[in-house]
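User: Hi! I'm working on a homework problem where we have to compare a predicted structure to a textbook description. Could you give me the structure for the chain below?
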Amino acid sequence: MKIEVLDEAEADLAEGFEVYERQSKGLGGYFVESILADIKFLQNYAGFHTLHFGYYRLLAKRFPFGIYYRVEDHVVRVYAVLDARRDPAWIRKRLV
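Assistant: Happy to help. Predicted structure tokens:
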């Protein structure tokens, strides 16, 4: 299955990179690599996750982030990569 990471999700990754890179040099790169590995996982397992606010949500393995996606016409579209510790109302507003 093809995976498409939308601009909004790429911006989320860049923001996460900056946050973690400020904490420790090199951690931002590890964050991005880890999230991209989780996204690649969706090639085989898209659509098996629970729905949240109209999107499937895959919880990242190494960081407290949710990967929000939809499966449309045999394409996995990643809409957002959000910190799962955020207020659910904020997450809903960001996704809608």
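For your comparison, note the following. DSSP finds three helices and five strands in the chain. The beta strands are 2-5, 51-52, 55-59, 65-72, 75-83. Good luck with the assignment!
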